[in-house]
Batch of 4 targets.
Target 1
Amino acid sequence: MRYIFDRTGLSFNSLVNEMRITKTTNYLLYTELTLEELAPILGYVDAAHISKDVPCKNGREDCKLQTGAWKGFARRAYRGKQAGLQK
């Protein structure tokens, strides 16, 4: 464990969480998978846990993914819904 801290400056758990957050962000940006589909792939218990761990990347540190808003929607479908293009 000390080796990881010496090399990265992060504890083992922090490093694992950073990797999961990066993978989650990439999946959301580049696939059509929903949070419910991503949770087991990335080792989360459910979609709610993803929203607690993954901060939004829009400049606000306090922003978290809104699980209820994403629930059941792939990224494009959700964005279309937000833009009023889909009911």
Target 2
Amino acid sequence: MRQLSAIQRDLLYALVGLKQPSGQELRTELEHHYGERVANGTLYSGLKQLVNAGLVQKQPRNGSDRSFVYTVTEAGKQRVDSHIQWASQFRPDQSPHTAPTNE
């Protein structure tokens, strides 16, 4: 998986902070963040692609064949860390490229 969509990236971020959430728990988290409904197709397609890319693991919840929990893999954590490191260079208060202010 070369590039992540915004929803895939946000799913990874949520998975780093949550302990084995279900798809519904992830949906609730994203809907709270976005302030709007997240469609089933969008959520589960994003999760499936992350699982297929080896960034997320999907496991049955309590032996169920209809309910699953998701965990971020080490590769997924590295992807999040890499994105955070890249994005932080563009924050004015942390960027080494920021010009000095004349105050």
Target 3
Amino acid sequence: MQAGTTGDVGIYNADRTSLITNTGGLATTSTGVKTKTLSSSVTIEPGVYWFAWVNSNTTAAVRHVLSGNNTNLILNDVAVRMGTGATAASSGVLPATPGTVTAAALNVAAAYFES
């Protein structure tokens, strides 16, 4: 890992026009699992949301499930469900909106949410 690096995870609404909640950046200067308690409670109603993550360096990664090209083709067959946002992050913190999401062959992030 690199000194002074930060990462962020968050949830956008279905049309990606609003960042509902995020960690606001957390230190990623060491290896291992990172946890973060949100500063305020957020209620997420049933529906479709976008889970997003970013880091200020290219070394850090989220835990993920390895997925091959077939998984990516299925997820992005009819509409983009997984990809890269056009709006750049700043200092390892998610932008207010991700912009247009372009389909990309990525590993599926493993996330755990608890109330």
Target 4
Amino acid sequence: MDEHEYEYNLPFTMHELDTAVQSLKLTSPGHDLIHNNMLKHLPPDYLEHILHIMNQNFNDSLLLPKWKLAILLPIAKMGET
């Protein structure tokens, strides 16, 4: 079987993207300053562009440098310092 035939190697679908976007919690934006609420209200043609970029990057085995960034905020448990 060709590796591209495995289900996990198939392109992302609009249904998968829409499900992921709609399940986003309302959190603070990251380095890109994009709020999850903004993503939830994008028109379908914008989501098509995002889906294309995601699939192109996945197919080319690329990860944009900015997608590798994260903001980590340690939160101590009650009673710990």
